[in-house]
Design goal:
The protein has 168 residues and is mainly β. 8% of the residues lie in helices and 36% in strands. It folds into two domains: 89 residues, Roll (Chitinase A, domain 3), CATH 3.10.50; 54 residues, Thrombin, subunit H (Beta Barrel). The longest helix has 7 residues. The chain binds zinc ion.
């Protein structure tokens, strides 16, 4: 069996910045493999393009430039908001507005999103809405653990069921 559309793929990978020797971003080493349905838009398209046709046991090593991964870093989407936005009964919870913290936010339509604290001023705080991996060139190494057919129910839901997926 090879990797193609509608197969469930179990893959162990290590993600570094720019090259295989670059700064470690994340790895499934010593943990459960990543599991996903191939070809249903769950993954970065370039990631899937590099795995297509591989078989269990095959290894891979490839880079994806930032623009094709999580996008270039965009300075213009840093936004200043009043600190008072985060007050709870007139007080800002201790430790909330620290640089690097991810804050759960909501827009007028009730959509939830995250903003990272980039700068804290006297009465304003600057939030960064870039994806945490924006601006990073990615480099993946790893191997294919196993492949199976997706169940019709998994395809209908658009996600994997069982170990490493949804439990329902
Ligand atoms: Zn489901």
């Amino acid at each position: 069996m090879v990797i193609e559309d509608n197969k469930v793929v179990y893959v162990h990978y290590t993600l570094n910045e720019s090259t295989a020797e670059g700064q470690l971003i994340e790895s499934t080493k010593g943990a459960e493999p990543l599991v996903f349905i191939f070809g249903v838009g769950m993954m970065i398209p370039d990631f899937e393009a590099n795995l297509k046709g591989l078989q269990p046991g095959d290894t891979f090593a490839f880079g994806i430039p930032a623009a094709n991964a999580y996008g270039e870093y965009d300075e213009t989407i840093l936004t200043e908001v009043p600190k008072s936005m985060f007050e709870d009964e007139g007080k800002i919870p201790e430790g909330l507005l620290e640089i690097g913290n991810s804050l759960p936010l909501q827009d007028q339509d009730g959509n939830r999103f995250q903003g990272m604290v980039a700068e804290v001023g006297l009465d304003k705080v600057k939030l960064d809405f870039n994806h945490p991996m924006a601006g990073l060139d990615l480099f993946f190494t790893g191997h294919i653990e196993s492949i199976r057919d997706a169940e019709p129910e998994e395809l209908a839901h658009g996600h994997v069921h069982g170990a490493g997926g949804h439990m329902h």
